[in-house]
Design goal:
heterodimer, A: Rossmann fold, eleven-stranded mixed sheet, 41 strands, B: about 65% helix
Chain lengths: ~950, ~300
């Protein structure tokens, strides 16, 4: 057993290393599965007619990513404006890993595809995509619904998302679609008008006016157009939108122009840049017109309509998941709202997802991409649970613990107003008198609401970008609500009715920008989504007011209690084509009611992680098991020898070795009988204290055992309750008084108070009033006395005192001897250790002498002191004296020492020997019993 | 009173020896004197008395009472400065009494609370060793496993009391200063005051569970060293190291293995639909680390030679 424990000690460090290695291995193993493997793909060039009746062709470059198992359903993944098939490489691989065949391609005019950009024209790009559907129908890797009809889902972001809508509208071979951050009507996206002459009661949350003759969104349009010119994608968001459960900001993806490219690709050829870049002349002319005049002609509108999903949404019957961004000043939430309404009216099913990104905020993150793949898996492979036709939106909180906004996703059973009840709306009262706002000449300087293009650079700090907004004094009318008394979760597009009148003769029509700020109690303003609602209103020439209903930009924003809502109507905005003519307008509220949409839902929570839950159960069971095992082992450890039940202490073969070779006690054996005062005598370092500590169960013996009243001593053995001990210094709580220390000590033993005899013990300590002082104020001697009193609490059968007289003055030492002798006389046993011979001789009845851990002598003090009849003579000439003593009858064992001679008298009186010595002429200085104890001791100490 | 007044009256010796003569120890079968029962040793009440009377315990508890006042006062003083509400987080702190409690828990969660737990658990055995009183408790005898358990329970009670005291005082201060309004959650969700109180109560329970690893480690160091400072400081050091590593983003999900990784998961409790997943993982992590350290502590203490 003891050897085992020694081995254990030696094995601790190697065992620790093994455990660490196992843990590291486990960690490595659980993580090594995550490494994504590249998905193989085949490249192909597919020719398509340049236009429906043309004989000219364009070449479309494609990639077909293949999953592990084929045939499988296919996903057509379209890229965004300015991108190419390379920019969707990562997402294509993700889909392929989920078991889909993925077809990506560069739309005409992008990447290495030839042809010119016709803005997703139904005659051009959409036909190209149909050609690709034909191609998929010929591939064996693709699962077929019938004949040449591949099972296929279409998805894509922005420009690609619009293509998915258009393709699904014209081609029934598409089985499902997921358009992401895309437009419903490009004319409305680039030339929005949020004013309605007559209020319309829209039942969906994010419906905006979509009125004709809008205000040109010139910054975004310019960025969009230049992306087509240079094939450098400034319009698509970079990086990913934050998602729920993330703990830190996404690192922006390292993207070369043209996006994340995949194996073996080179940068696309530099396009030949003309004024129109790779646009068709029609698109180029339309842009030029709008950009220079700020208005769109019928011709331009017709061109845009040909590229507009709104033209085909009434044909979409396929299950559709619409993903739109809450940080998107290009294609806002109202675009997907319109698409959803149109598809639902035509009888299609729509699931709506608003995420915390968009053109200003970033691409869908991993979780949302996973959700899109789940949608595809359910509708194409019939795997997984039904994603349903609900509505999810993400709420961005104000709290930032680690640099990212905290998000939560709210789920409503359906997008309100599509088929069921209309959206719930709350009314907030606005107030403010009529105000005059001035439009500066040239529309400059202009208010700032958002920074298109820069928006993606600010995507990870949408809180910052939403605070960038600046309204110029004199150019805006402000209407403010009272402080809210409870939180209002704005979800969609609020509406308000305004009255606008001419402020001077110049103003025939007004271009105005409405925005709704969340104003905190200290005045900090936040413009949710950085979005503004531009509107154009014709003003009556007679100076009377025109009344309009304005739909404010849709947003998701928790407006806290004590915050206010502020409606600002300004005359300019940096991002739009402002009115050039200087003018002034009188703006007032037609109705003080601001109608705010709210969509109640429940928060999405991830369920209990079952593995962690099982882990908790297993960890608890292991802990309980360890406790139970330890308890049984303790029960079994008890060991007693009834024959020794009257013997206070038997030590046999006791050895204590420390690692490193030091042996403090070696093979020590002795007994202490009832009623003895036994002195354990030895110089410092003889192993006395170690022995006593082993008797108290504080130190584990290496070999041998100790029995107290027959019971083997183990740590905490119950028999220790019959021992009172004072070993190597006192141990008191310094912040308590002496009396309190003794009381608490006794309380800690759990024994009845009447057994303690605390008063008697305190009397022995004799500290007087000092017992009520804190122990930290005591002198060494006082602590010593208190400690001895503590050892006597409960009147133990065996009292063990280690160097009890150290630090005491002579009268106290004398008293202590008295106490010990009388205590033993009262039927108890006392074991005292000391390094002073005189101490032991005067106090003890028996003695055990130790040196270097070993027993030197043991027996009655008197016996050992008297030396069993030996005598010592101090003489001038030891050799002569020795001769004389050898000559005496019966005397033997004579040996000389320096200045003395020792002999075993064997019954011969010392007086006779003395007279013989004197007679022989030896000068005797001293004669007496030989003090063997002292000799032995001195010999030891002398070394 | 000086040393010279310290003496033993001879009569006292007589009294003692008389008592010894008249009292004969009755012995139970297990060798103990009748009246001694291992399961009665070092009752929690006794250990709590020993600990509560210590100045350090009183100072810690006093500080926890004071801290919310200091925080509230600093908000008041800071009000003069226009940049007071720079971050959304502080913005929330003064939204309502509950939000003030959340702030208090948040600012103390990373360092103060682990330190307090480390103090109560790390100091418990090591300080006895440093006072040399450990050997007398063990020789009383209090079985080692029981000594460790009772001390751990007492430390646990003190720690939990401290953990609960801070938000309780903060709640009082918060309601006094900022009113019993709606609590605004980190995700921007508002909940009624009563839900907030419940959330904070659950948060305190979670923090207590999550700090089990600190308790285990402190206990382990406490039985491994005779220097209380070493045990407490070592534990705090490990906690800080873990928090530093948690900030190193390239470690990615390796950080999930850090014991402090889920320390702030209680923030999930403040929304209406509580997401328990992080807290479940945090509980598991704390249980595993705490359990391992506690078992190590028990083993170490069982086999240890007590020499101080």
């Amino acid at each position: 057993m003891s050897r085992l424990s020694r081995l254990r000690g030696r094995w601790t460090i190697p065992a620790l290393i093994v455990v660490l290695a196992l843990v590291a291995g486990g960690v490595y193993f659980t993580r090594s599965g995550d490494d994504p493997v590249a998905v193989p793909f085949k490249e192909a060039k597919i020719d398509a007619p340049e236009s429906p009746d043309s004989t000219q062709t364009v070449t479309i470059e494609t990639r077909l990513y293949l999953p592990r198992q084929t045939p499988a359903p296919a996903i057509m993944l379209a890229h965004g404006f300015g991108g190419s098939l390379r920019s969707v490489h990562t997402q294509a691989e993700e889909f392929a890993r989920r078991g889909f065949v993925v077809l990506t391609w560069s739309a005409r005019g992008f990447g290495r595809s030839t042809g010119q950009i016709a803005l997703n024209s139904l005659d051009r790009e959409v036909r190209d995509a149909q050609k690709l559907l034909d191609f998929l129908g010929t591939r064996d890797e693709v699962l077929k619904d019938s004949g040449g009809d591949p099972r296929v889902g279409v998805t894509g972001a922005s420009y690609g998302g619009a293509l998915s809508l258009l393709l699904a509208g014209v081609d029934k071979r598409v089985d499902t679609l997921v358009p992401v951050i895309t437009y419903n009507d490009p004319a409305q996206a680039l030339l929005p008008n949020s004013a309605l002459a007559t209020p319309r009661s829209d039942s969906t949350p994010a419906a905006t006016a979509f009125s004709e003759d809008g205000v040109f969104k010139r910054s975004w349009a310019g960025i969009f157009f230049s992306a087509g010119m240079t094939s450098i994608d400034l319009s698509s968001p970079t990086g990913e939108a934050p998602e729920m459960g993330q703990t830190e900001a996404n690192q922006p993806a390292e993207q070369a122009p043209g996006g994340n490219s995949g194996a073996g690709s080179q940068p696309p050829p530099t396009p030949s840049l003309g004024a129109c870049g790779r646009f068709t002349p029609e698109v180029c002319a339309a842009y030029t017109e709008v950009a220079t005049t700020g208005r769109a002609s019928q011709q331009t509108l017709a061109l845009l309509r040909k590229s507009s999903p709104v033209a085909v949404t009434d044909q979409i019957k396929q299950p559709t998941m619409l993903v739109q961004g809450e940080q998107d000043t290009l294609f806002g939430l109202d675009q997907s709202d319109a698409t959803a309404r149109q598809i639902t009216e035509a009888g299609g099913k729509v699931k709506m997802v608003w995420y915390a990104g968009g053109h200003d905020g970033g691409n869908p993150g991993a979780a949302l991409r996973g959700e899109i793949a789940d949608w595809m898996a359910f509708h194409l492979q019939h795997k997984g649970t039904d994603p349903g036709t609900g509505f999810e939106y993400t709420v961005q909180g104000a709290f930032r613990s680690s640099g990212t906004p905290s998000l939560r996703t709210v789920v409503a059973p359906s997008y309100p107003g599509l088929s069921g009840a209309a959206t719930e709306r709350r009314t907030v009262k606005l107030s403010g008198r009529e105000q005059v706002a001035v439009n500066p000449a040239g529309g400059n300087p202009a208010a700032i609401s958002n920074l298109p293009g820069l928006g993606s650079a600010l995507s990870r700090s949408s809180a910052i970008s939403s605070r960038l907004s600046i309204d110029l004094p004199g150019q805006a009318a402000v209407f403010t609500s009272e402080a809210l008394d409870s939180q209002l979760l704005l979800t969609g597009s609020s509406t308000v009715r305004l009255r606008v009148a001419r402020g001077d003769q110049n103003s025939g029509e007004a271009i105005l920008f409405a925005k709704l700020y969340d104003v905190s109690a200290d005045g900090t303003r936040v413009l949710p989504g950085s979005a503004v609602a531009p509107f154009r209103v014709a003003l009556p020439p007679d100076g009377s007011a025109a009344e309009v209903a304005v739909t404010l930009p849709p947003a998701v924003r928790p407006v806290e209690s004590a915050h206010k809502l502020a409606l600002v109507v300004s005359t300019t905005d940096q991002a739009f084509a402002n009115a050039e003519q200087p003018a002034a307008y009188k703006i007032s509220l037609a109705s003080e009611d601001l109608s705010v949409p709210v969509v109640p839902g429940r928060n999405v929570t991830t369920g209990f992680p079952m593995s962690a839950l099982w882990g908790i159960v297993i960890a608890l069971l292991v802990l309980i098991g360890a406790g139970v095992i330890a308890m049984f082992r303790r029960r079994l450890a008890h060991d007693s020898d009834p024959s020794l039940s009257e013997v206070p202490l038997v030590i046999s073969g006791l050895t204590k070795s420390y690692p490193g070779g030091l042996t403090a006690v070696r093979d020590l054996s002795f007994r202490v009988e009832h009623g003895q005062v036994l002195g354990l005598l030895g110089p410092n370092g003889a192993g006395k204290t170690t022995t006593l500590r082993m008797v108290m169960g504080l130190i584990h013996p290496t070999e041998g055992n100790i029995r107290v009243f027959g019971h083997k001593v183990t740590p905490g053995a119950p028999v220790l309750s019959r021992i009172g001990s004072f070993v190597e210094g006192s141990g008191f709580l310094p912040h308590l008084s002496g009396a309190a220390n003794l009381r608490l000590y006794w309380a800690a033993t759990g024994r009845p108070l009447e057994e303690a005899h605390i008063e008697e013990a305190l009397e022995i300590a004799g500290l007087g009033d000092a017992v009520h002082r804190r122990v930290r104020t005591y002198s060494q001697g006082m602590r010593q006395r208190l400690a001895i009193a503590q050892a006597m609490l409960g009147l133990p059968d065996l009292l063990i005192l280690d160097e009890p007289t150290n630090g005491l003055d002579p009268p106290q030492i004398h008293q202590m001897r008295e106490v010990l002798r009388r205590y033993a006389a009262a039927g108890r046993t006392v074991l005292v250790s000391s390094h002073l011979l005189a101490e032991v001789e005067q106090t003890c009845s028996h003695v055990v002498v130790m040196h270097k851990g070993q027993l030197v002598a043991a027996g009655e003090v008197a016996d050992i002191a008297a030396g069993g009849g030996e005598a010592t003579f101090r003489v001038d000439s030891p050799s002569k004296a020795a001769d004389v003593l050898r000559g005496l009858e019966g005397v033997h064992d004579v040996h000389e020492d320096e200045g003395a001679v020792h002999a075993s008298m064997n019954g011969v009186p010392r007086a006779a020997a003395l007279s013989a010595l004197v007679a022989a002429g030896v000068a005797v200085d001293q004669a007496g019993p030989r003090r063997r104890l002292e000799d032995a001791f001195l010999e030891l100490v002398g070394e | 009173m000086n040393e010279h007044d310290v003496h033993t009256d001879p009569g006292a010796i007589t009294e003692l020896t008389d008592a010894a003569t008249h009292q004969h120890t009755k012995v139970a079968p297990d060798g103990s004197s009748i009246g001694y029962k291992a399961r009665k040793t070092l009752r929690i009440r006794v250990e709590l008395q020993r600990q509560i009377r210590r100045r350090r315990t009183q100072l810690v508890l006093g500080f926890l009472v004071l801290l919310p006042f200091i925080l509230a006062l600093s908000f008041e003083i800071g009000q003069a400065s226009p940049n007071r509400r720079s971050g959304g987080f502080v913005d929330l702190a003064t939204a309502s009494g509950i939000n003030f409690v959340v702030l208090t828990l948040f600012v103390s969660g990373s360092f103060l609370l682990p330190m307090i737990v480390a103090l109560f658990f790390g100091d418990t055995i090591a300080s006895e060793a440093s006072w040399s009183s450990l050997k007398y408790l063990l020789a009383a005898p209090i079985p080692r496993h029981r000594l460790l358990r009772q001390k751990a329970i007492a430390s646990g009670i003190l720690s939990f009391f401290a953990l609960a005291l801070l938000p309780a005082v903060a709640l009082g201060v918060g309601v006094l200063w900022y009113g019993a309004g709606e609590v605004v959650s980190p995700t921007g969700e508002a909940a009624p005051f009563a839900d907030g109180v419940l959330g904070v109560a659950l948060a305190v329970c979670y923090i207590a569970i999550n700090l089990f690893w600190v308790a285990g480690l402190a206990l382990f160091l406490s039985v491994s060293t005779d220097a209380p400072l070493g045990a407490v400081g070592g534990t705090v050091l490990v906690s800080i190291l873990s928090q530093i590593l948690d900030q190193i983003q390239p470690l990615e999900d390796l950080r999930n293995y850090l014991p402090t990784h889920y320390a702030m998961a209680w923030a999930d409790l403040l929304s209406t639909d509580v997401d328990w997943s992080e807290m479940t993982r945090g509980t598991f992590s704390a249980l595993v680390y705490g359990g391992i350290f506690t078992l190590l502590a028990a083993r170490r203490f069982k086999t240890k030679d007590v020499t101080s």
